[in-house]
Design goal:
Strand content: 5-15%
Helix content: 55-70%
Radius of gyration: 20 Å
Number of helices: 3
Distance between the termini: 25 Å
Shape: rod-shaped
Strand order of the largest sheet: 1-2
Length: 119
């Protein structure tokens, strides 16, 4: 895995932890909704392609545009989530303690990849 980012582990029940968790839950809900919608779009695109019916093939142009838009939205949510998470880590006392290697604070590495396949 490449491109990992290192962050301290939160978990002391602070308000910052609650805000981070709320942001995670909201963001993951948005992403899951888009991914579910994309799965349906991809299935319809594949069915239209297999049918070779001109009207359905024309419809694929709109569906592919919608799919691309959804992918952009997922990437935007990921960027916002990353910025929010990084900002909360940099501002937390735990981040300071972890960056100084103080006992009792762990560091965790998060790896992110973006692979989108349309077939």
């Amino acid at each position: 895995m490449e491109g990992g980012e290192t962050f301290p582990v939160l978990g002391n029940g602070s308000q910052g932890d609650d805000k981070v968790m709320q942001t995670f839950h909201k963001s993951f809900g948005q992403v899951q909704s888009r991914l579910d919608q994309n799965r349906k779009l991809i299935n319809e695109i594949n069915q239209n392609q297999a049918s070779r019916i001109p009207g359905r093939l024309n419809r694929n142009v709109r569906l592919i545009g919608e799919l691309n838009s959804n992918i952009r939205r997922v990437v935007d949510v990921d960027v916002e989530l990353s910025l929010s998470f990084t900002g909360s880590m940099e501002a937390s006392p735990e981040a300071e303690a972890a960056s100084q290697g103080k006992p009792g604070y762990e560091r965790v590495i998060i790896y992110r990849t973006h692979n989108c396949y349309v077939g």
